[in-house]
Design brief:
Blueprint lengths: L1 H36 L17 H7 L2 H32 L6 H9 L6 H23 L2 H4 L6 H29 L3 H9 L4 H12 L1 H16 L3 H6 L11 H11 L3 H28 L5
Helix pairs in contact: 2-13, 3-7, 3-10, 4-7, 7-10, 8-9, 10-13, 12-13
């Protein structure tokens, strides 16, 4: 019995050990180091590290830019959350029906997610600045003549448009998997009993798709809250810091202002907030799940 347990344990160590070692080196150790540096005024370069206690955290209370960036991130996350999941679920409903070329459409809608955030930001920056300006001069439509990245409201919606365009196809794939697992007999029985499309959608399809909603809402919230590369490439937080996300604020604080201790403190506070929000969301949507 002991030999069997030893063999089983050694097999686990072979398969899990390397991943655990790298995870410890790349994630666990830096995380605990960041907890220490958050209590210092280290500039990220000097060998001199001065312990300042909770001064960095108390500074956040009076940091108006951090609060402004936080509320911008919350607004951006809420709007993107609704649009991404609404469009993704709508596409999933459309592409699970019997139609010609649906696999091609699924691939086309998923492809934006393959493009990296920095590259995607530069592509859409060209579209907003050059492409829309050219279309505006040709068609004189007000939509194309807007200063998309030069004004705070339009820059916000520009970020939302690109974020939605990138993620809608990704959540669509998850929703498609959930819709394909709903028993066909259940849907046919509901229609035979006189259920309309909206009734079937509201009473059967959405409740049975709640596990997919749990996953998609979690992914959307965490991704939009941590928006960085797209924000950096598209607007760099402008104009006048009006579209600066919390992640970009932390990056600028640590690596542009050389306040590594304060930047790390901001990152820890942000980590706790995102963890609490996503945990609450998962608990809430898990309670709404039903079994087919």
């Amino acid at each position: 019995m002991t030999a069997r347990r030893w063999k089983s344990g050694s097999e686990y160590a072979v398969f899990i050990g390397p991943a655990l070692v790298f995870f410890t080196l790349i994630v666990i150790i830096p995380f605990f180091m960041s907890m220490y540096y958050a209590l210092t005024n280290w500039n990220g370069v000097s060998s001199k590290v001065t312990f300042v206690g909770f001064d960095n955290f108390t500074h956040l209370v009076s940091d108006s830019l951090f609060r402004k960036d936080f509320w911008f991130t919350v607004k951006f996350t809420l709007v993107s959350l609704v649009l991404i999941n609404f469009i993704g679920f709508g596409l999933a409903l459309l592409l699970t029906r019997a139609m010609r070329g649906r696999n091609v459409y699924r691939t086309i809608f998923f492809m934006p997610n393959v493009i990296g955030g920095l590259l995607l930001g530069f592509i859409w920056q060209f579209i907003f600045v050059k492409g829309f300006a050219s279309l505006g001069s040709l068609t004189h439509l007000p939509f194309f003549e807007l200063p998309w990245l030069g004004d705070a409201p339009t820059a916000f919606w520009g970020l939302v448009i690109v974020q939605t365009w990138q993620m809608a196809g990704y959540v669509m794939v998850i929703y498609i998997a959930a819709l394909m697992n709903i028993p066909k007999e259940l849907l046919e029985a509901a229609r035979i009993d006189g259920g309309t499309r909206m009734t079937v959608l509201r009473k059967i399809i959405i409740p049975l798709s709640m596990p997919a909603f749990t996953v998609c809402l979690f992914l959307t919230i965490s991704t939009c809250f941590k928006a960085f590369d797209l924000n950096l490439a598209l607007t760099k937080g402008g104009p006048f810091n009006s579209t600066e996300s919390v992640a970009l604020n932390i990056y600028y604080e640590a690596f542009r202002n050389n306040n590594y201790g304060l930047g790390t403190a901001k990152a820890l506070v942000f980590f706790i907030i995102v963890a609490l929000v996503t945990t609450a969301q998962v608990i809430y949507t898990k309670r709404k799940e039903v079994q087919a």
